[in-house]
Design brief:
The structure is a homodimer. By secondary structure, chain A is an alpha+beta fold. Chain A contains 5 helices and 12 strands. Helix content of chain A is about 35%, strand content about 30%.
Amino acid sequence: MTYCVGLLLEAGIVLLSDTRTNAGLDNISTYRKMFTFEEPGERVIAILTAGSLSVTQTTMARLHEAAEDAEATPDSSVLLAPTMLKVAEIVGNTLASVRQDIEHKMNATKVSTAASMIVAGQRAGGAMRMFLIYPEGNFIEATTDTPFLQIGEHKYGKPILDRVVSRETSLADAQKAVLLSMDSTLRSNLSVGMPLDLAVIERDACRMSMIRRIEAGDKDFAAMSGAWSRALRDAFSQIEL
Amino acid sequence: MTYCVGLLLEAGIVLLSDTRTNAGLDNISTYRKMFTFEEPGERVIAILTAGSLSVTQTTMARLHEAAEDAEATPDSSVLLAPTMLKVAEIVGNTLASVRQDIEHKMNATKVSTAASMIVAGQRAGGAMRMFLIYPEGNFIEATTDTPFLQIGEHKYGKPILDRVVSRETSLADAQKAVLLSMDSTLRSNLSVGMPLDLAVIERDACRMSMIRRIEAGDKDFAAMSGAWSRALRDAFSQIEL
C-alpha cells in the first residue's frame, strides 16, 4: 500500500508521499511515488501515485513519453496542456487506458489493477489546482471546503488533518501537518514506509519551491515524531474523563 | 459501518461501541451493538458486533434463545460453557451458521453478509479473555503483546491506542483512551455515530462493573472532546519542524 497526501492552500501546495510498495506480504520494495513536470516560471505539475505499481509506472512512462514527443500537442502533453483541468484529463485518460490494457491480461488472476493519483500544480496566469484521479480516469478537485486530498491508506492520518488544516494554514504548518499525518500512518500500518518525499509549490512561483527526500534515519523527522508522541501522551494525561 | 473496541488489561476489560447502522447511505438508524450475558459473581460475557445487522441480530437472538433454553447444554449455551474459549466457539459457530443461512438468500444480490464480533469476559476461577470473531466463525485472542481488538472502522482510532495503551494501563486511562479513539473516528467518518455504550469489567469481579450509555449531547464527553481538540492543536503548534 501507500499513503500520499496533498494540501491546496492560499499560500501554495504541499505534497507528501511514502515509498513502500509490496507484491504480496513478502516482497517489499522502495519506489518513488512523487513525479514532477516543470518548466520553471511557466508551469509546475506534481503527480503522486497509489495502487498497482505496474499501472502507475506505465502511466508515468507514457506521460513522460508524450511530453517529450517531438509532435506533442496540447491534447497529449501535460507540458503543453492549456489548463490544469486539461492536465488532469490527460493523466486520467492515460491512467484509464493503461489500466484497460493491463486488466485485459489480468482477467484470469484476481490481482487488482486499481490505481489512483493526485495531480497538483499551476500554470503562469492560471490558478493553483489539485485533483484526485480515480482508477477509472475520472477525477474530483480540492476546494476551499476540502483543502486536502489523500490516496492509499488515508484513514490513520485523517484525524490530525481534520483538526489542524484549513485553506489559511501556512506552508510551514502544512508541512508539519502532512508529516504528522504520515507519522501516525507509519506507526499503525506496516505497508506504508520510509523514505518520504516532501514537496512545496509556493503560490504563483510556477516551479517546485522545495523538494526533499526524508530518509529512514532522518534526525529532524525522528525528533519531530518523538516530540509529537510526547506531546500526545502529555495531552492524554491532562485530559479529564 | 461501526466502530467497536475492547481492551484487555491487567486491571480488567474496557469496551466501547457506537450505535450507528446504515442500509445504504440514506437509511441511517441507531442500534445497540453491545450485549451482555451475566451471572453476577459466576460469569460475565460482553459481545460487541459489527457488520450486517440482520446477521448480528439473528446471531444474538439465537445465542439468547440457546442460553434460555430449558435443555441448554455446556455446548450450546454461553451461560453454561465451561471456559471463555468455549464461549468464543459457540459465538463463532452461531455467527457462521447464521451467515450461511442468510448468504444463501443473498446470493442473487451483492449485499455483504459479513459480520464480526468481539467477545470478552471471565468465568469465576478462569482468566479474563477477549476474542475477535471473524465472519467465517474462526477467531483470534487478545494477548499481552496486543491488548486491544477493534472491529468496524478501526483505522482512524488506532494511532491513539498504539501510542497510549499497554497491558498495564489503568481502567480510568483505558476509558479515556477508547473514548478519544472513538472521538477521532466520529469526527472523520460519518458512518460511526453517537450514542455510545461504554462498559468496564473489573478483574475477577465476574460481573459488569460499569455500563453507561453516552448520549449525543453528553456534557462530559463533549468537554473531553473539546479539551482533546485544544490539547492536540496546542501540541501541534509547539512541535518544531
